Each structure stands twice: as C-alpha cells, then as structure tokens.
Amino acid sequence: MTEYVLRIPLERHVLSTRRSFTAVIEDIRDAVGGAVAGGQLHSPPSSAGRGLSGRQVNGTPVPAGLIGIGELDIDHALVRGAETSCLLRLLVDMPPASRDLVRFLPDAGASCPVAILVQQAADGGTRLLYDSVASAISIYQDEEPLAVARGFDAEVLALLRRVAADDG
C-alpha cells in the first residue's frame, strides 16, 4: 500500500447578500433545476438538454450547461445561542466540463460535481460559499484541465453573483 498527502491551496469564494435565504435558493433552483432535498438525484431541468435557454435569474440569462444534481440539508435548524439559521449544500455540475476535466486529469473527479454552501445569515441575509475547481487542481500544473476548470468556475461564479445581487 502507498499513501501520500497533497497539500492543495483552495480558493474559497464567499458572497454575502441582503437577499433572503429562500429567495437565493429559489433563484439557484430556477437556474440549475430543482433538486430534491436530502441528496436525491433528479433529471436535468429540460428535455432540451444542457441549453437552458430562456431561463433567467434576476432578469439575466443563465449560462448554459449548469445542472443541479442534489441538495443536502446540512442542518435545517442550526442553532447558535439564540440564533437559528439554515445551511444547505447544493451539488451542481456541468457534465461536459466534468467529462473533459477527468479525461485530462482523472484526479479532477474528486472536485466534480461542485458544492455550493448556502447559509442563512443572522441578519436575514444569505452567504454563499464556493471552492474553486481550478484552485483544487492547480497543484498538477496542467494547462488543459486548468482552462476547463476556470471555465467551470466562471459559470458557477457568474450564477452566484447574479443570485446574490441585491434587489434595487
């Protein structure tokens, strides 16, 4: 048996918004297709495949390719002192990018699909956390999968920035 440990510096993107947890979750579900809570899988959002044309979040077209594949309600009633909040982990994938990533670099399969952590903030707003796929595979210093991962990250971050955009 051989075992070794790779130290991988991750880039974690943290977005905070005044928008409610419910509104943010609904917009993400609308964009990537609604998964069933509890980690169960579901079908892609449309029979048109990955085009996702016609869907919008906050009035902006959603990038093609992102699909929701599951949700995990980490702690529906996370209690800290007198505060109660919700914490939901969304699994999102972009199958063509994931396929290319593992074709170029099999270890990239450990980073796909991606997770988006959505937390209800104490002030009624919402926090979104996302770990960059490109940072997770940067240690391998291979430009082909890094280019694919950067594109994947750009799609996810564009979606998160749109859903986090404050109304008015």
From the structure above, extract its key features.
two-stranded antiparallel ribbon; 29% helix; five-stranded antiparallel beta sheet; 168 residues; alpha+beta; 4 helices; globular; 29% strand
Lay out the secondary structure.
Layout: E1 12-17, H1 21-32, E2 56-57, E3 60-61, E4 67-80, E5 83-93, H2 95-104, E6 114-120, E7 126-131, H3 133-137, H4 143-164
Antiparallel strand pairs: 1-7, 2-3, 4-5, 5-6, 6-7
Verbal overview:
Mean pLDDT is 83; it is low at 36-55. This protein has 168 residues and is of the alpha+beta class. Helices cover 29% and strands 29% of the residues. The chain contains four helices and seven strands, in the order βαββββαββαα. It has a five-stranded antiparallel β-sheet. A two-stranded antiparallel sheet has the order 2-3. The N and C termini lie far apart (58 Å).
Secondary-structure-based class equals alpha+beta
Radius of gyration: 17 Å
Taking the alpha carbons of the first and last residues, their distance comes to 58 Å
Proportion of β residues? 25-35%
Question: Which residue ranges are poorly predicted, with pLDDT under 50 across at least 5 consecutive positions?
Answer: 36-55
| Individual helix count | 4
Largest sheet: 5 strands, antiparallel
> What's the arrangement of strands in the largest beta sheet?
1-7-6-5-4
Binned, the helix content reads 25-40%
Q: How many strands appear in the DSSP assignment?
A: 7
